[in-house]
Amino acid sequence: MQPPYESRPAGAADRAPRARVLVVDDDPTVAEIVAGYLDRAGYAVDRAGDGPTALGHALEHRPDLVVLDLMLPGMDGLEVCRRMRERGPVPVIMLTARGDEEDRVLGLEVGADDYVTKPFSPRELVLRVESVLRRSRPAATGDRLTAAGLTLDPDARRATKNGRELALTLREFDLLAFFLRHPGRACAREDLMREVWGWDFGDLSTVTVHVRRLRGKVEDDPARPRLIRTVWGVGYRFEPEGD
């Protein structure tokens, strides 16, 4: 990785108040470089070198986003992510030292919104942070989305099924909102990555894992989905009428 001496990335404007990012990594060099880039990009940055310290920081100063290393001493990043999510929704970008698909999927399964594999470009990480935060704060629309017993309020970032609150992550919420806005449309995973994640490239298993997690929360029987159907050779289709 490069030292944090480059100028602020284009489009990273000063924030008032500044968004707060918690960087959790037991490697002080990585943490310092990441924190330096984020600070220059206009963020308020807190740092922690282990899970318990990270949870303490998050309790004292609720972060707007967490950059979380998977391989932490004592309490790993997966457990830290789970415990943070128990206290309320917070966007998480997971860092992993290995490129194994199993590691990436585990991070996504516990609700990480994105992941970056080490070694990585700090500038790319800043852009990922920008993207996740931007999509976590959508412009007010005023239009509620309803279908198949589901109700989404984009302004309040609240979703219910048959009146029961759904605990959705940032990406799960956006994915469900996209499906509700495009009923009956066969959507390729590449299209979903571009429309929901805002990326023109990336690991398509990210989409697969999020669809599986979303089915677990909105389907009566996730093993036999009736709302979010698989379109073989294409992707997925939302069928508000079910069967």
Structure description:
- With 243 residues, this protein is of the alpha/beta class.
- It has two domains: 20-136, Rossmann fold (3-Layer(aba) Sandwich), CATH 3.40.50.2300; 145-238, Orthogonal Bundle (Arc Repressor Mutant, subunit A).
- It has eight helices and twelve strands.
- The chain has helices at residues 28-40, 51-60, 77-86, 101-109, 122-136, 170-181, 189-197, 205-218; strands at 20-24, 44-48, 65-69, 92-96, 114-117, 145-147, 150-153, 158-161, 164-165, 186-188, 228-231, 235-238.
- It is globular.
CATH superfamily of the largest domain: Response regulator
For the sheet with most strands, the description reads: 5 strands, parallel
Q: What is the overall number of helices?
A: 8
CATH class of the largest domain: Alpha Beta
Mean pLDDT over all positions: 84
The shape, in one word, is globular
CATH topology of the largest domain: Rossmann fold
Which CATH-level-2 architecture of the largest domain?
A: 3-Layer(aba) Sandwich
Query: What portion of residues belong to β-strands?
Result: 15-25%
Distance between the termini: 52 Å
Cα gyration radius (Å): 18 Å
Spatial order of the strands in the main sheet? 2-1-3-4-5
Tell me roughly what share of residues is in helical segments: 25-40%
Number of domains: 2
The low-pLDDT segments are 2-16
Order of helices and strands: EHEHEHEHEHEEEEHEHHEE
Q: How many E-type strands? A: 12
Structural class: alpha/beta
